[in-house]
Write a structure and sequence with these properties.
Helix 1 packs across helix 5. The strands form three sheets. Strands 5-4-1-6-10-11-12-13 form an eight-stranded mixed beta sheet, with helices on both faces. The protein has a three-stranded antiparallel beta sheet with strand order 8-7-9, with no helix packed on it. Helix content is about 25%, strand content about 30%. It starts with a strand and ends with a helix. It has two domains: about 180 residues, CoaB-like (Rossmann fold, 3-Layer(aba) Sandwich), CATH 3.40.50.10300; about 35 residues, no CATH class. By secondary structure, the protein is α/β, with parallel strands linked by helices.
Length: about 220
């Protein structure tokens, strides 16, 4: 199979020197890519520019991305190839910056624009704008592929995370979703579009189930 794996964080610029990003290291996606290569598959790893996982990656092709729009554009381009499975494990920034304002002594807001916003401006207000949901475009980019998303949550409990994973599948016509994070608790959940959810205590078991899911979807 030709598998695409996304790994690591996107970032969104505040100005020409500052960025908004997240704590993703790219470890899970990188290890999933290595596992798939070891099973004899061709892997394209889309790897965040600021991912910090230090180990050697064994994917046959590694493509760097930076912003959310950059990752989306590279996935769209890969949609022109024959792709059997897409494992979208990257931690996409949920927000980018909109306008930045300074409040005057009279309470009015005045927009601040600069290649490097100065601290001399004092306390500023920055608008956070939701970024496009890449997973919502994947079925259009890869109409015949097995597509697996991720749902990482830190609030609620396991049932809440699994419900959100099922909602992600319904909304985006994906084949499965991996649930994890402190809200899920220990291990990983694999929620398929059809069939019973599964729980895995380690990554190797999860990776094996993902590879099996992709193989079983092939015509």
């Amino acid at each position: 199979m030709h598998c695409i794996v996304t790994a690591g964080p996107t970032y969104e610029p505040l100005d020409e020197v500052r960025r908004l990003t997240n704590f993703s290291t790219g470890k899970l996606g990188s290890q999933l890519g290595d596992f798939l290569v070891a099973q004899g598959h061709q892997v394209t790893l889309l790897y965040g520019h600021f991912a910090t996982y230090p180990e050697k990656k064994h994917a046959q092709r590694i493509v760097s991305f930076d912003t959310t729009l950059d990752l989306r554009a590279k996935l769209e381009l890969l949609g022109k190839e024959t792709v059997d499975a897409v494992f979208h494990a990257a931690a996409v920034s949920d927000f980018g910056f909109g306008k930045v304002w300074k409040r005057s002594a009279g309470g009015e807001l005045h927009e601040v624009k600069s290649g490097k916003i100065s601290t001399r401006e004092g306390t500023l207000l920055a608008e956070l704008v939701p970024t496009p949901k890449i997973i919502g475009s994947l079925r259009r980019f890869f109409p015949a592929s097995c597509i697996v998303g991720w749902k990482y949550e830190v609030e609620g409990d396991r049932a809440d995370v699994m419900a959100k994973a099922a909602e992600q599948i319904r909304e985006n016509k994906t084949d499965a979703c991996v649930a994890n994070g402190s809200a899920y608790g220990f291990g990983f959940g694999l929620i398929p579009a059809a069939g019973a959810p599964q729980h895995f205590s380690d990554l190797t078991m999860l990776f094996g189930a993902l590879e099996k899911l992709a193989r079983n979807r092939q015509p």
